[in-house]
Design brief:
This protein is an alpha/beta fold and 845 residues long. The chain is built from 23 helices and 25 strands.
């Protein structure tokens, strides 16, 4: 392994190279320092960012582990062994281009398009940790059609397959992560968040992609902070006003959830910010009481100069991570590593010094000496993890993908597919490798299927990780959910451990409290759409969910409850025999019917007495029978309206009561005719008797019959359901059909009543025996008064009370006729029978 160094001798970001030769039994030593130690054959490069972060050295070890697995597997690439080589890029564009050219020339001197060692033939590159560096490499490698497999680039890069057809990514499509982010915020109903991105093209593209998605799904961004470049960090720290502005944004107590595009520049600045903030003052509750949501680039790593970095603010962090699975043998591989067994690996010894903060005995600096007995598993997880991280897992899969693609290529040659029987590792051309790499599909040692989609991206989803930190710098990662390529989102919120400031209660991230059911949202002027007031629903409307934009009406047959948060079924409204009002009216109807029947019985019993025989006995009987039937017909108005009862209600009442009024009119006219017939020389004596009475009854009856015939034939009454008049009830009623004919019927009755009243009033003082004109005048006065007062009450009443008013009108009108006309006569017949004689009447006269 050859390794470039910076001025301080610290490895920064390295490019790893894999070689393959036939029939080589040994694994290339990690840390080989000369080109003579590199086996000849096919050549693969990997770019890795390590810098001063010992944790990233696991990327190198996962490469070595994958190569070891492949070399020890007799099924994959038999008679071929793999080795690797490392170059450092220093996260610098110039050095990246330089080392990429070294990969192409495979020599100490950069001679483009010329290879001193004819046995070396690079066919693929694995890289890199930083998107910008990866694209610098891709611009050169794409010229030679050399496949490059990135293992950590997650920034939006547009149509990469069109721009860089030789570019592959051992990571899923970023859109799955963005969809998962939106689903995560919606799941917890976090609608008021902050966003931190880097102040470069990557951060700008993240903002342009994610923020509109958040807005579309009802999430507002309270602040959108851009992190400075690393060269500007010290300038900001030196400027109190600028630093204070950053502090105010991140410590804003109204913002409980902060989404971080965890690109390396962003995370490095964030850690430096917290480091300097903790130096200015103790970490406040406003900073601790945050839920950090990190994108998949995030990793809990502490640089060597920040070993005392306080990781408590990040406890409870939720982050996305490339889907990984446990590689069982990898921790054992790490445990076997020891500086004594890696004598040729200067890079490993450097890692050991950084990780354990010691120096080897050859150093004269006043520091702890490394003994070589230190244990990797004793390191805090911020410095080194024993389990394979997501980036190391991607490198592991990338090496296996190349190995399987090479294996498929060589097997295809044997079967004659390649058409070149002399093909061997040094003769493999990169353009020949593409078709095998893009169609690769295999199960790795962890049982995971590895394959690329049509865009050259890994077919996989993202895991959602909950990070739990402890004071001793140890970390526990708990997988709490996932977002699959099918966009299926799953989350186990019970497995999440929140920061201690939340007391394990679900954090709330909203601009204001939710609007409860029964209220609707009203936008606050000058505020984002997530900030609103809660306004009660208008009458007749409800809202049955939180934060509804508008209230809605209930379905037909339902009405809002008192809280206006649910719809209740409307009850049926009709005058029932089972309710007090219906029972009372039915009792009155039967009582008046019984009284009328009793009066009729009294009159029949005393039919030969003068008071009964006066004013036409047959008309008296007819009037009583009509009154009896009128009282009984009120029972048709009580109970559930049916089609038949709707037909009979107005018809029966109108005809029967009209006959009753007609009888009264006939009796009144008989009084006048009888008085005029008693005058000498009068010719009206022949008009007395049944002929006149029957003519009056028939004439009045025919007019009413014509009215009802037209009514029933054109637009008859029918059963109707009124859903709108009463808020909480459905009125079941008899719709009168034609309002005009209904008014004509009642108007005709009122007209006859007024005519009868006028005639009776004129005849009240006529000197005739048992003159009923006075009694009829009072009865018609009662009838007309009841009828005129009934009309406005009828028009202003709804439901069963309207029916009750109509029943009361019938009972009052009938009772008025019965009481005013027959009560005085019954009094004489029963109480004063001595007055019920012709002699007594003549003597009184």
């Amino acid at each position: 392994m050859e390794m470039e160094r910076d001025e301080q001798g610290q490895p920064n970001a390295s490019i790893f190279c894999i070689t393959a030769i036939r029939a080589s039994p040994r694994l290339f030593d990690v840390g080989a320092t000369s080109s003579e130690d590199i086996p000849t054959g096919a050549f693969v490069g990997l770019k890795n960012g390590i810098g001063s972060t010992p944790k990233n050295y696991q990327h190198v070890l996962s490469l070595a582990f994958a190569v070891k697995e492949i070399n020890e597997n007799p099924i994959i690439l038999p008679n071929v062994s793999l080795g690797f080589h490392i170059f450092d890029s220093y996260t610098n564009a110039k050095i990246t281009h330089q080392n990429t050219l070294k990969l192409l020339s495979v020599s100490e001197k950069i001679v483009p398009n010329f290879k001193c060692d004819k046995k070396m033939n690079m066919i693929a590159v694995i890289g890199g940790l930083d998107s910008e560096i990866s694209f610098h490499m891709a611009t050169i490698l794409s010229i030679y059609k050399i496949p490059q497999i990135s293992y950590s680039i997650l920034a939006p890069i547009g149509d990469v397959r069109t721009q860089l057809p030789a570019f592959y990514r051992m990571v899923p499509n970023e859109n799955y992560q963005f969809i998962g982010l939106v689903q995560l915020l919606k799941y917890f109903q976090w609608t008021w968040i902050g966003v931190i991105v880097s102040d470069n093209e990557i951060g700008e593209m993240f903002g342009q992609t994610v923020i509109p998605m958040l807005s579309h799904h009802g999430v507002c961004v309270g602040f959108h902070e851009r992190t400075p470049s690393l060269s500007q960090v010290m300038e900001i720290v030196g400027s109190f006003e600028t630093l204070q502005a950053k502090i105010n944004s991140l410590t804003n107590p109204e913002i409980k959830v902060i989404v971080v595009n965890a690109e390396p520049q962003t995370t490095t600045w964030l850690k430096w910010f917290l480091y300097f903030y903790s130096m200015l003052e103790n970490i406040s509750e406003n900073l601790l009481g945050k839920v950090w949501i990190m994108t998949a680039q995030w990793d809990f790593s502490a640089e060597t100069m920040q070993r005392a970095f306080d990781i408590e603010p990040f406890c409870g962090t939720l982050s996305f991570a490339i889907h990984t699975n446990e590689v069982v043998e990898f921790p054992e591989f790490l445990q076997r590593l020891h500086p004594g067994t890696e004598t040729g690996n200067a890079f490993f010894r450097m890692f050991w010094e950084q990780a354990f903060n010691c120096l080897w005995a050859s150093s004269h600096e006043d520091k702890n000496n490394c003994t070589g007995e230190e244990k990797l598993e004793s390191l805090p997880a911020t410095l080194f993890e024993m389990s394979m991280t997501d980036k190391s897992y991607s490198i592991y899969n990338a090496v296996h993908a190349i190995a399987h693609a090479l294996d498929n290529m060589f097997k295809s040659k044997v079967n004659g597919v390649m058409g070149n029987s002399r093909l061997c590792p040094p003769n493999v051309q990169p353009w020949q490798f593409h078709s095998f790499l893009k169609s690769i599909s295999f199960n790795n040692s962890a049982g995971e299927l590895v394959s690329f989609d049509e865009n050259g991206e890994l077919v996989a989803g993202f895991d959602i990780i909950n990070w739990i930190t402890f004071p001793n710098q140890s970390i526990v990662k708990v997988k709490v959910g996932s977002i699959l390529p099918s966009q299926e989102f799953t989350l186990n919120k019970d497995a999440i451990s929140w920061h201690r400031t939340f007391n394990q209660a679900l954090p709330i991230a909203q601009c204001n409290d939710n609007c409860h059911p029964g209220y609707r949202r009203k936008k606050k002027e000058g505020k984002p759409f997530c900030c609103y007031d809660c306004v009660p629903c208008a009458d007749g409307k409800i809202s049955n969910q939180k934060d509804m934009d508008d209230c809605f009406k209930c379905q037909e047959g339902q009405y809002p409850n008192q809280n206006k948060d649910q719809c209740l079924p409307k009850v049926l409204n009709f005058l029932s025999f089972s309710e007090p009002l219906g029972i009372m009216l039915a009792f009155l109807s039967l009582s008046f019917s019984l009284i009328t029947a009793s009066v009729l019985g009294i009159f029949i019993k005393h039919k030969d007495t003068p008071i009964v025989k006066a004013n036409n006995r047959d008309l008296t009987y007819s009037l009583l029978i009509c009154l009896l039937l009128c009282f009984l017909c009120t029972l048709l108005f009580i109970g559930l309206p049916q089609t038949l009862t709707c037909y009979l209600r107005q018809t029966a009442f109108g005809i029967i009561f009209l006959l009753a009024v007609s009888c009264v009119l006939a009796k009144t006219i008989n009084v006048i005719v009888a008085f005029m017939a008693n005058k000498p020389g009068s010719r009206m004596r022949n008009c007395l008797g049944k002929r006149l009475s029957n003519s009056i009854l028939l004439c009045c009856f025919l007019i009413q019959i014509i009215i009802y015939a037209v009514w029933l034939s054109s637009n008859p009454p029918f059963q109707d359901f009124d859903l709108d008049s009463l808020a909480e009830e459905i009125i079941i009623e008899c719709n009168e059909g034609s309002v005009i004919m209904f008014c004509c019927s009642l108007g005709y009755l009122l007209f006859l009543g007024i005519v009868c009243f006028v005639v009776a009033f004129l005849a009240r003082k006529l000197p005739d025996t048992f003159n009923e004109a006075k009694l009829i005048t009072f009865s018609m006065l009662v009838f007309c008064s009841v009828c005129l007062s009934f009309i406005p009450v009828y028009l202003s009443t709804k439901g069963k009370y309207l029916v009750a008013v109509e029943v009361f009108y019938i009972l009052a009108s009938g009772a008025g006729l019965l009481g005013c006309i027959f009560f005085p006569k019954c009094y004489i017949i029963i109480v004063k029978p001595e007055l019920n004689s012709k002699d007594q009447l003549i003597r009184r006269k």
